[in-house]
Structure prediction request, 112 residues.
Amino acid sequence: MKIIAITAAALSLVAAATPVAASAQAGWRPIAQRQAVLDRRIDQGIRSGRLNRPEARRIQTELRQLDRLEAQYRRSNGLSAGERRDLDRRYDALAARVRYEKNDRQNDRRYR
Prediction:
């Protein structure tokens, strides 16, 4: 019983601190985190068969291009607000593409 009470107290402290941390960054997720999430989604799509190899290769190429663009932006005095917005827009578009490709049922035998 004590363990449950301690766990609940710890979770409530974390929950109380989360909005403060989230509002500090105004909902912006670090680029490295976005890259990792997209990479995991691509790998999961390949393993589940929802992404075929050519689709996955194209998406991974775009992800590498975004990584190079970010490095180029960072070399020129760090990321400006405009560059960060540009990267966010590009990551959003790539995430939408991954979502579309995983759900296009191209590899689903029931729809052939």
Q: What stands out?
A: The two ends are 55 Å apart (CA to CA). Helices lie at 2-25, 31-48, 53-75, 81-102. Confidence is low (pLDDT under 50) at residues 17-25.
